[in-house]
């Protein structure tokens, strides 16, 4: 076993920024208002399974369909970039119909375990030991579960201005992650 506290913290912070569960509180509160109850346990468990499964078989799936990790990472960098722009500027580039339920879709996928998260997992796998990434995933899923369970209280406590500040801060962090992801993978395309 190659457990390394620094790797766990670093991978955990990257995943925390990409998942952006705190920045998603306004979306979660809105979903809760539209559909009533959010299935926090189911959404958290499905997201964890998706992330851990992708950590192990993601590269194989990409190879099977003829996509290399660098291409996927650059594409993911664009997705993360546009998510960051949405958060920083307060605009909505991606429009989706209002869901009728809030369990697996849209919570577990794509809100928690979306393209940005999957790309980050592949990038982390290239740099860190798998067991450290799994611990980071589990820690993040615990945080996600807690936030999902108490999203209404957190939303009231932070208020609209607090939520806006959190979204902007995490937007800048995501933007930096997108730039780093793009820069470290774009040379591998040529």
From TrEMBL:
Superkingdom of the source species: Bacteria
Family statement drawn from the similarity comment of this UniProt entry: Belongs to the UPF0056 (MarC) family.
Keywords: Cell membrane, Membrane, Transmembrane, Transmembrane helix
Residues passing through the membrane, by range: 12-31, 43-66, 72-94, 101-122, 128-148, 169-189
Location(s), subcellular: Cell membrane
Protein name listed in UniProt: UPF0056 membrane protein
Major subcellular location class: membrane
Keyword Transmembrane: yes
Organism: Galbibacter marinus
Pfam families: MarC
Topology of the protein relative to the lipid bilayer: Multi-pass membrane protein
Any one Gene Ontology cellular component term annotated for this protein: plasma membrane
